[in-house]
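Aim 2 progress. For ubiquitinyl hydrolase 1, the working sequence is reproduced below.
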Amino acid sequence: MDIIARAGLHASILRHHKRHRRTQQQVDESSSSSSSSAAAAAGHKPPPTSASVRGLPNSSLCCYLNSLIQSYASLNNSLTRRLCYLTKPENTQRPLVTALLRVVGYVNGDGGVDGDRGPPRDALQVVRGFLLERGFWSFTQQDVHEAHTLILDEIDGYFREAYLQECRAHSTRTLLQAATSSDSSSPREEPTPSTGPPSDSQPPDDHLLQMSPLPPPPIPLKTGLLRKTRWCQRCGCLARCKYEEMGDVLLPLPYYAPPGAGGGGGGGWGSSSFPVSLVGLMAGEWRARVLEDVACARCTCDDIGRELRERMGLFQEPSSAGATSEQDIPHPPFSTSLALLPCVWHLLCLRRTLKALLAFMAPFAATQQNQCYPATALPDIEAIQHALRAIIASHLQTTGDSSLIASLSQIASREIKTSQVEETALEKPPEMLGVLIQRVNVQGGFGAGSLAVKNDRPVAFPLVMDLPLSGSGQGASSGGESVGQSAARCAMPVSRSWHSSNAGAVEIDPQEPASAPPERVSPCPSPCVPRQPPHCRYTMAAVMCHSGSATAGHYSAYRRKRQRGCHSLLEIIGKHMPTPPAAAAGAGAYDDGAFVYASDLLVRDVPSAEVAAAQSSAYFLFYERH
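Predicted structure tokens for this construct:
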């Protein structure tokens, strides 16, 4: 009886919830109609709706996925081109690619893509199933950046595989055409009769074995290259040049403690009126840093060469040619010559070893101060020390003098540590730049008793942003000195300039240290002032906003419409465009009808000022290269 009664109670509760939901919907519809009629009577217009962008239903608490798809649809076909490339008949058909194409086409309002049949719920279910297979549970509060990473990494993997497959097929066709043309142009020779059985070991034609090299696969959509250079403040030379892949930019959001608030930084969490600039946060992550006690290969080579030259001076003979024959050594009396033979042999071996070491160190010796050397001309310190030990072992293996080998090995094993300036710049900007503002912090560790706190501090973001590129391709400045050299010689970091279109009116906390070092005028003369590096322009595509706490809330998005000059989805599918369309005139400028606000099924046109005002809820930003 208890089970039956409990089941009946549960059924009655469900009926009550359905009745309450139906009543609430009727009340909402009547209130919306009355408010619209009242607004019309008062002369006010209702909130505008977008006719070119469609919304998506929020089923199974997937507002994060709806906002992410709306952001993908705003990328002006940079992602859609890759999806359409994967749907070509010769490529392997992927359910995720087909589902994303259908949903993006429906959202953008392309005619013929699901038309007026309503949202493609089956395609949305395919995308949600893909996330569930990867361990992404969609029925709880989730991080949208995690879903974005899973989807784009999968698409980039598909695109890389299809691209390499097409390159191999193209190489095979090229080789077959070359073989056919060579056979038709060359005279045919009569085959010589063979008395033996056919041999399988006979190699085929050489031109069939010489496969043409495949082009490198394309860089993923959200991946760029960062160039990190280190300049020694002692010798002023390039100490290190390293390239790293760049994905989405993760920016920790600092808290603000008002003056007089105790507890360090716990005073003004989530209620600060001092916004921080997104440009300042990015410049703070990529600012020039001074590293202490770092081994410099140039200074180490100079010190080792100086010590070897001093050793050579101890064994210099009056001979002008510097020959190391026995005639150059003074002959002692015959009674002591036999006793001095081991010393003479050690002397000859030592001079040959020192000359070999100096000859090896000659390309690495700095001839003048503050001279710029290419990064490939100077190997690592470990490689230099390994080569020096090999030379010492090969030249002194016949002497058997362990003390002499130990003294030279000690010279070759030394390291000179100096202060170096590390600079970070964009070498190859990504086609799509994702910026994640890390608003959620975990207090008390990640175990029991931990607390997730959301930081609602406003972040002012620009609609148009210029990022500095690396000046490596532009060469040195007019005075023959690069940015890193002038920074090393002046013993101070040089910050690159960051520009934005609407970040000048941002109020910055006067008590908080600036995220980026201020611009300082170099004390070098005018010929040594570094030239301004080039910039790469990015325009805003979408802003994903999160309202609520760290454990619950709602995702929405401000997204850009398809700009003028960009092709529709059907045109891309018909043409399979391998290259991006031409940029529209005035694509960097936004008018009041360029953005829409999408919150599940609610889609309305918004002015650009409303997009820039979403500072406290902005969570994940999409920029596209102009």
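Residues 144-185 form the longest helix (42 residues). This observation will guide construct design in the next reporting period.
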